[in-house]
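Batch job 17 of 40 flagged for manual review because the log was empty.
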Amino acid sequence: MKILITGNQGYVGPGVGRYLRDAHPDAQIWGYDTAFFAHALSGAVDSPERVLTGQYFGDVRDIPDYCFEGVDAVVHLAAISNDPMGNQYEAVTHDVNQAASVACAARAKAAGVKNFVFASSCSVYGFAPGGARKEGDDLAPQTAYARSKVGTERALADMDMGDMTVTCLRFATACGMSDRLRLDLVLNDFVACALSAGEITILSDGSPWRPLIDVMDMARAIDWAIERPASAGGQYLCINIGSDVWNYQVKELAEAVQAKVSGTKLSINANAQPDKRSYKVDFSLFQELAPDHQPQVTLDASIDRLIDGLSRMNFADSDFRNSPFMRLKLLESHIQAGRLSRDLEWTFGR
C-alpha cells in the first residue's frame, strides 16, 4: 500500500503518520507539505517525519502529478487551518482549502488512486441550536474556514469520481498533545492558561456547544477511511467524526481542566454576547459504519496528555496567545520577516 498525506507537517499530521505506520508497517507513506510549521516542534525528541518513507515539499496549490504515482490512498489534511487565519486571509483560504483540494482530488482520480480522504469539519454546522446535527441537516457555516469546507464537500459530491472512493470526514474540534502543538484550540488553550497563569478566562458565557476529538482518534478514523469500500456508505460519503459523549459546552471543558490543575481559577463572562458558533453533533453513522475505529481517548486522558506534554516543555508563557503556538502569529512572523508573501507563498528566489 502507498499512502500520500498532504499537510502532514501541521498539528494533526504527526499523529496520523505515526498511527498509519503502526497500523501498516509495510506501507509506503509519503508526506507533502509547504513547511510553514515544520520547525514548530513541541517537545519532540526527533522528527515526526522519521516514520515516513519520504517527504515532499511544495505548495498544495501546485502539487506535482508525480506525487500521486502508484498511490492507493490520499489523506488530504492541507488547509489554512482555523478561523483567525481564514478571516485574515479569506481569498487564500478559498484557494488553498477549496480550489486546491478539488484539484488534488481530480489529480488523484486521474492517477488511479482508490481512496481520497478529505479532512472536513463539524464547523460547517455553525450556529445550530436545538438537537444534535446529522449529516443531512442544514449547514450554517459562520467563517471563511467553514465555508471552504462546505464548498469542497459539494464540489467533491458533484465530481465524476470514476472508480475512486471519496470520504469527507467532518471532524469534531481537534484537541490533544501533538509534536507540533497548537494552542489556538479551545481545550488546548484552557490547559495552557491553567498551567501558565493559574486562571482560565472564558470570553463568552460558556454556553456554546463544541464536540471534541483527540488528534489520536482523528488518526484512528483516517485509518478506517483510507480503506473504506464503497459498499460501506457509498462511493461518496460525508460523515461526522467524533463521539456522542464528547459533545460539551465550553464551560464544561474549562471545569474539567480546572479539576485537573489544582488552584486554577475560572472566570466566565456571563454578560457576553451569544457565540454564533454553537452546535451539537450526532455521530451515530460513524459508530454504525466504523465500529472498530471509534474514539478511545477520554476527555480526562486528553487533558492529562496535554498537561504532561506542556510540563515536559517547561511551558510557563502566560502570553502564549501572542506566541508561535498560535498559527496566525507564526504565519505573521514569516510575513514580517519577508519569508512569505501576503498570498502565503514562499519568497525564496524572488
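Reviewer: the log was empty due to a logging misconfiguration, but the result itself is present. Residues 184 and 223 are 26 Å apart (CA to CA). Unflagging and moving on to job 18.
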